[in-house]
Amino acid sequence: MEKREELYAGKAKSVFKTDDPDRFVLVFRDDTSAFDGEKKEQLNRKGMVNNKFNAFIMEKLEAAGVPTHFEGLLSSTESVVKKLDMIPVECVVRNISAGSLCRRLGVEEGQELTPSTYELFLKNDALHDPMVNESLAVSFGWASAEELDRMKELTYKVNDVLKALFDEAGMLLVDYKLEFGRSNGDIVLGDEFSPDGCRIWDKETRKKMDKDRFRQGLGDVIETYEEVGRRLGIQFD
Ligand code: C5P
Predict the structure, then answer these.
(1) Would you tell me which CATH number, out of the four given (3.90.420.10, 3.30.230.10, 3.30.200.20, 3.30.70.260), belongs to the domain 3-82?
(2) pLDDT per residue as tens digits for the range 94-135
(3) Cβ(200) – ligand 1 distance below 6 Å
(4) CA of 2 to the centre of ligand 1 (A)
(5) Among candidates 70, 68, 86, which has minimal Cα distance to 7?
(6) Distance 79 CA to ligand 1 centre (A)
(7) What 3-state class would DSSP assign to 187?
């Protein structure tokens, strides 16, 4: 398979066409951004760490019956993925209160949420990804009711698989964001799963081990991502 021209450059990843019309190459860059691109930095090794982290998680999810776009690693910073028709809605599950939930509702960080909560956000940087709901998504044609049901079902299935995986490795999966797309009539998990798009805390100390280290200037961002990976059994270069 041959990598061709760049199709799109996001804040941390770029998408390249290939000679196969049904496959893209995702390039994980060292660029790190937060607050809708207001805070930006290059973090050495981040592209490699997130690419390998994502590959490991996508393979676990696929094995548990969650269809994903991931097909394989191409290099230490590149992966081959299926082309998806992306749905512009982000699905967020929270097991513990943190982040925008605390800001929006004035609740304290660190409360266990039983049952886990489920929220939808419109993918739109200019509008700062506003919160939406199923009714808006259907009325505006972002996704059908059936597609939204399937996205919710898969997002919770991911929670069952990953909560257990992190728990066994001494960590808490606090929350995470997923993006889905369509492929041959099926809903398929797209984008990435890495410490950039979820919150992970140490089970004992509640040390933050995800992108909040970057957002909050806590330091050792990539070293901590690597520690999360190592605890899960991921080998980095
Ligand atoms: O900011 P908020 O608390 O709503 O984020 C919930 C979860 O979704 C966090 O793990 C965050 O990293 C992730 N997220 C993301 N990309 C966004 C919004 C949220 O990865 N655009």
Answers:
(1) 3.30.200.20
(2) 999 999 999 999 999 999 999 999 999 999 999 999 999 999
(3) no
(4) 33
(5) 86
(6) 23
(7) strand
Listed by start position, the domains of the chain span 3-82, 85-220
The interface pTM score, or ipTM, of the predicted complex is 0.97
Cis peptide before 115 (omega within 30 of 0): yes
Cα-to-centroid distance, 11 and ligand 1 (Å):
14
Query: Please, what is the end-to-end C-alpha distance for the chain in angstroms?
Result: 24
Question: How far, in whole angstroms, is CA 101 from its chain's centroid?
Answer: 17
Residue whose Cα lies nearest atom 10 of ligand 1: it is 198
| Backbone phi and psi for residue 179, each to the nearest 5 degrees, phi listed first | -125, 140
Between CA 23 and CA 170, with CA 55 as vertex, the angle to 5 degrees is: 160
Q: Hey, is 220 helix, strand or coil?
A: coil
Distance 197 CA to ligand 1 centre (A): 6
**Is the distance from the beta carbon of residue 191 to the nearest atom of ligand 1 less than 6 Å?**
no
pLDDT in tens, 12-23: 999 999 999 999
Residue 167 corresponds to which tokens in the numbers above?
């728990």
What pTM did the predictor assign? 0.98
Q: 60-73 pLDDT, tens per residue?
A: 999 999 999 999 99
Q: Which CATH architecture has domain 85-220?
A: 2-Layer Sandwich (3.30)
